[in-house]
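Memo to structure team: turn this sequence into structure tokens by end of day. - J.P.
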Amino acid sequence: MLPSHAAMRVGTSASDMRSAGLLGDRLMYRPYDWMGEDVGVSTANPTGVTQVWRALWAAGPERVALVDEASGRSWRRRELDDVTARAAAHLLGRGIAAGDAVILSVAPSDVAAVSFIALLRLGAVVVPVNTAATPREIEHICALSGARLALSDSLERFEGLVPAVAAESLLAPIDPVVAELLDLSEESARALICFTSGTTGAPKGAPLTHANLLAGTRALQQCWNWTPSDVLVSALPMFHVHGLLVALAGTLTSGATIVIHSRFDADRLIDSVRQHHATLVFGVPTMWMRLADSGRLGELATLRLAVSGSAPLSPALFSRLADQLGMAPVERYGMTETLILTSTPVDGVRRAGTVGRPLPGMSVRVADDGVVEVRGESVFGGYITSRADEPLLQDGFTDDGWFRTGDIGQWDGDDLRLIGRSSELIITGGYNVYPREVEDVLRADPRIVDVAVVGIPDDVWGESVVAFVVMGPAALGDDATIAAWKALAESELAPYKRPRSWTIVDELPRNAMGKVMRDDLSARGRGPESPG
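Reply from structure team:
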């Protein structure tokens, strides 16, 4: 029985909820009429996600599944089936077996897509890693995931940490008879370990199974009416859930076509939409701002959905996009541990500042303390601890099995509105930055006595990373000192984690318990003394 302290929305039927006695005064509920009933391939027996994809490929082998914008290569379904089988056989020949963790750190490309599918097909566990991750960050991920190999297009980054091979080498020819046999994916097996952080900033590994991935992508397929006739243009990074599991895996589950851009460029993306008659574009607010600034969104006559996520759209940008596109953008809400939780409707009113209602198969409630709690088939089972083969840590789960997201939300009519975060998480350009990680790096400089990192509103990036530094009595706050701090950040942190501005202060504001009052710093950060 649902606790009385929570208001909930679900993606199941109202009749089911009423029969269970779960619709009361505090359980305001009005489901969307999601367009798709079941447009995917269903199987009677438990199956891995690649087996579902391959069933689709076999049903229409000549359809184009994937286009690499940079090289111009396109892959028909039968070709993708063949090349991913060969790639899986290559990995098997290198000693990778089902259950082994393999890092995937490759720029968006057909090579990244083939590597991802091949690893899943082999039954290996994909560990996505930022292509700008530093050796310190990679070392931690290797230790926690137990990775046995890295697939990358920049091998020197993994030297001395884990054996690495060029991902493109997986495309080399191999005995087709051997390759044809390879599909070892299983529904209950781990598909990925994606790294996130808790409220303390300590990195955590969130494992997702094939069943999680299939449930999450099928829910998107249904609520966005994502069909084989759709063409998605994506310039999202493929080490991130948005690009890898929403854009790529969602396309594969729906049987649609994806056009992958290696990097974001507004004009090239618009040209690509026009060239391929694309119907879908997914992006983060920073991308959508640059697309709006281009003045060319009105050229996208074939577009039916413009989807934004990973950070909230500002009301002003929402309005600009609606005016230029002739339709309001779709906003969705999700996280690494759960995949996508809610979405505004394909058919219906989309309101700025809301993230819609639960996807099919997903339940969402807001607890008394305002924290959004979720439950559903795409939600992970717990964090890995010190080693990937140990029992999962149930951190963040309630006694009755709901996962506490750490986000603060409220129901606005029938839609969820996110109003803040319970942690100090900074979202810049769609990427998560955890202040403690940045602070720990900066504290390595002996001139820094104390430091706090906060996010301040930024029209382009959503939030900008700002560092407030307390120096020792003998230190000089000159340009050379700040340059040294920047160099330290560049050597230890990925670019999006580095402070964009630095403010030297006499002391950090703290409450009676000694905790830094970050809201005060965020207010002061709107006028930093030392621009970065």
